[in-house]
Design brief:
Layout (H helix, E strand, L loop, with lengths): L17 H13 L6 H4 L4 E5 L2 E4 L4 E4 L2 H4 L8 H11 L11 H12 L3 H4 L2 E5 L4 H16 L4 E4 L8 H5 L4 H4 L9 E4 L19 H11 L10 E4 L2 E2 L5 E2 L2 H13 L4 E4 L23 E4 L12 E5 L18 H16 L2 H22 L3 E7 L2 E6 L9 H13 L2 E2 L1 E3 L5 E4 L7 H25 L4
Parallel strand pairs: 3-15, 5-6, 5-7, 7-10, 10-11
Antiparallel strand pairs: 1-2, 2-3, 4-12, 8-9, 11-12, 13-14, 14-17, 16-17
The structure holds 4'-deoxy-4'-aminopyridoxal-5'-phosphate (PMP).
4'-deoxy-4'-aminopyridoxal-5'-phosphate (PMP) binds next to helix 7.
């Protein structure tokens, strides 16, 4: 299904190759020490097409990172490139003025919602990042309710700006920055592989959400009624953890009952990643606010938006502004992306390829005692690694698998608690052949890493 000049992954040099090494050294000298990806994926990129990416040394990799879930139709999909190229000569930056292409984009996005929601929702375009969308959602809910606190969930990731970071679970980046947004309360998420309440499947009755229900209904619970409950339906950076259906449905019922706006952060899960346009559709709920960003344009052009209930639309003109809210190129690409998704039945491909990936990962997990759980939805998958003797997160092994995958021509990510989850976000239009190629590379990577690791740990 992908349009690609590349046929398969092929490495010509060790990783990093000599040219990549030069760029990485120059980057080290001139760029911030806060950079991340090149530390774990030490390559400099020359170009990319479809599911493949080529580094400056001519090594070709299958890309299962896709710009952190941004490139839903792979790199530089030709129809999206054509749409962007045409728009480039017409009009590029439009603040929040209406334009024909923006109108088409808005209509196309709303048309992807479940039928019952289409007329009820409207959009606000934010500054072009997921974090900015999250900030806008929190601001909207505070303004509407007049309340100040926000409830969110352990393990969640919502971005790097001040408020978004305050809503994020991961402590490694937070701890260094004093003075977080006050009034944020973290509740346990349905992360059953490591139950936050220490329960086992036979003793669990989704007590994590019972705790939230009781806390919010307790007159001595200490938490005033919040402005919003903000959640991911599949925690992505948190280690690919799909919330259980019961958990999400009870959060929805509770927030309805207490009249608390429910914000779903679909920055990563949105635009087809989980097999439906938005993940909330699979939970049979209707949120009040959806935050969308990454794959809205389908080609990597930045954009972010809130899609929210018209009843909440009480904020004043200028309540959430931003210079880069009107990226016409992103709108043009996004319109073309939805056309391709519909025409090529991309969501069906997500389901079919997702099932194949799940089966391959389960097979892989059965080969090593270090695999604790295979999790995912649609084409968002992870395999959590843990020490079989102690249960501790096997972060070093995950990193070793990531490095070995790269040597075998496959780009994957790590995430989750202590980065112990090997994560995959392939293009949504990936072909069965490309997926099989990636699974073979991953199997080789696991075998190499597992062998090295077991030997190094002296546990043969
Ligand atoms: N929310 C979620 C669920 C995300 O996965 C991310 C990015 N990984 C963000 C928010 C932040 O998006 P951005 O990096 O574009 O600010």
């Amino acid at each position: 299904m992908t349009h690609t000049a590349y046929r398969r992954a092929a490495l010509r040099t060790p990783v990093p190759g000599p040219l990549s090494k030069q760029y990485l050294d120059r980057q080290d000298e001139h760029e911030s020490s806060a950079r991340t990806y090149p530390r774990r994926l030490p390559i400099a990129v020359k170009r990319a097409q479809g599911s493949y990416l080529e580094d400056v040394d001519g090594n070709v990799y299958l890309d299962f990172l896709t710009g952190a879930g941004v490139l839903s139709l792979g790199h530089s999909h030709p129809e999206l490139v054509a749409a962007v190229t045409t728009q480039l000569g017409e009009f590029v930056h439009g603040l929040d003025l209406p334009t024909p292409i923006k109108d088409r984009f808005t209509e196309a996005q709303l048309s992807m919602l479940p039928e019952g929601m289409r007329d009820r929702m409207k959009m606000h375009f934010c500054g072009p990042t997921g974090a900015n969308g999250v900030e806008a959602a929190v601001k909207l809910c505070k303004i509407v309710t007049g309340r100040s606190d926000v409830i969110t969930f352990q393990g969640g990731f919502h971005g790097s700006t001040a408020a978004a970071m305050a809503l994020t679970g991961a402590l490694d980046t937070k701890e260094a920055v004093p003075n977080h947004l006050p009034g944020v309360h973290f509740f346990p998420y349905s992360y059953c592989a490591r139950c936050p309440l220490g329960l086992t499947p036979d003793t669990c009755e989704t007590n994590c959400v019972t705790y939230l229900e009781r806390a919010l209904n307790d007159s001595n619970g200490g938490i005033v009624k919040p402005a919003a409950v903000v959640m991911e339906l599949v925690q992505g950076e948190g280690g690919v953890i799909p919330a259980t259906k019961e958990f999400v449905q009870r959060v929805r019922a509770l927030t309805r009952e207490l009249e608390i706006p429910m914000v779903v952060d679909e920055v990563q899960t949105g635009c087809g990643r989980t097999g439906t346009w938005f993940a909330f559709e699979q939970y049979d709920i209707e949120p009040d606010v959806i935050v969308a960003s990454k794959a809205l344009s389908g080609i990597g052009l930045p954009i972010a938006a809130l899609i929210y209930d018209k009843a909440l639309d009480t904020w004043k003109p200028g309540a959430h502004i931003g210079t880069f809210r009107g990226n016409q190129l992103a709108f043009a690409a996004g319109v073309a992306a939805i056309e391709v998704v519909r025409r090529d039945r991309v969501l069906e491909n997500v389901a079919a390829r997702g099932a194949e990936l799940q089966a391959a990962l389960n097979e892989l997990a059965a080969r090593t005692p270090w695999a604790r759980e295979v999790r995912g939805l649609g084409l968002m998958w992870g395999i959590e690694l843990a020490d079989p003797a102690t249960g501790a997160p096997a972060s070093a092994l995950a990193r070793e698998v990531q490095a070995a995958a790269l040597r075998n021509g496959l780009i994957v990510e790590v995430g989750g608690r202590a980065d112990c989850v090997v994560r995959m976000l392939p293009p949504l239009n990936i072909s069965a052949e490309e997926l099989a190629e990636a699974c073979a590379a991953l199997t080789a990577a696991f075998d190499e890493a597992d062998e090295d690791f077991t030997a190094a740990a002296g546990r043969e």
